[in-house]
Design a protein that fits this description.
Elements: E1 17-19, E2 22-24, E3 31-32, E4 58-60, E5 64-65, E6 72-73, E7 78-79, E8 83-84, E9 91-95, E10 99-103, E11 108-110
Antiparallel strand pairs: 1-2, 2-3, 4-7, 4-11, 5-6, 8-9, 9-10
């Protein structure tokens, strides 16, 4: 533990260490940038690192199988008005033809409006 490194923002562990440009927590494996303003370290990010917010429009970057169905959400599907939620599937949205669905942020890219 180094005296000049901040505690982990996810679990408050004091055993953080620096790995290249990121800070890493060995207890919960959370990684964050020491230069990020407070609040941005825990922000939900898309597949290329853009910060997502409620109401954003995103596109799906790969075909996604819908669990419990034979349907597939195709690559390039545009999703408007997303809502960020806690959990593994951190985006809650409505896709035309599928209805209400949860997506993982690593499978979407923010659309510039």
């Amino acid at each position: 533990m180094s005296e000049n490194l901040p505690p982990c923002p996810a679990c408050s562990s004091t055993f953080t260490y620096q790995l290249d440009a990121l800070l890493v927590c060995p207890e919960c494996a959370h990684e964050w940038s020491p230069d990020a303003p407070s609040g941005e370290a825990d922000a939900v990010r898309d597949s290329v690192g853009n910060i997502l917010q409620d109401g954003d429009t995103v596109t799906v970057i790969k075909d996604l199988k819908v669990k419990g169905s034979s349907s597939v959400v195709k690559v390039g599907t545009k999703v408007r008005g997303i809502r960020l939620v806690e959990g593994d599937h951190d985006i809650d949205c409505k896709i035309p033809g599928f209805g209400q669905i949860g997506l993982k942020s690593k499978f979407v890219k923010k659309v510039s409006e």
